[in-house]
């Protein structure tokens, strides 16, 4: 059910998705749906939780293989590209996060998910600054928020300017450009082996 819901939310967004459509697409009965989820909102929150859990696991595995924080920052972007390549429904997270943040009683929960992502990047950036690999003139939380906003913005922009068949490759290409911008801001030269993707 979570996978089906993620696919529908990624395609249509929260507001345009109906419980009836979710039930039909999942093959569940109405009773079975409501046995597991009391509402569309509860299902959407479960989708965010599940997709972010998978993404965090993928990112943690990628960064644990890199000894330097600057290289960890690069592999976060690469892991994100890989997650979206393997599971296009992962796009549902940014869309649901934006949509659910407008619902007052779940705003804090959704914001906490986003703050955790920004916080994880900020910690890596802070270490890269301490290592002398990134300039300390940019506040780490601000740079992390900028990178998160750029990533989520690339997802939204792609759905507006690219055809569905080209959107994924365009997202990957633009993420490569974002990585190149981070590399260009390094205070120490990038290793030949870590440049490019």
Report on the architecture of this protein:
- The protein is an all-alpha fold and 197 residues long.
- 76% of the residues lie in helices and 0% in strands.
- The protein contains 9 helices and no strands.
- The protein is elongated and about 60 Å long.
- The chain starts with a helix and ends in a 13-residue tail after the last helix.
- Residues 192-197 have low confidence and may be disordered.
Give the SSE layout.
Elements: H1 2-16, H2 19-26, H3 30-36, H4 40-64, H5 69-86, H6 92-100, H7 107-130, H8 140-161, H9 164-184
Essential attributes:
197 residues; 76% helix; elongated; disordered C terminus; mainly alpha
The helicity comes to over 70%
Uncertain parts: 192-197
SSE pattern: HHHHHHHHH
Average pLDDT, rounded to a whole number, is 88
Rounded radius of gyration (Å): 18 Å
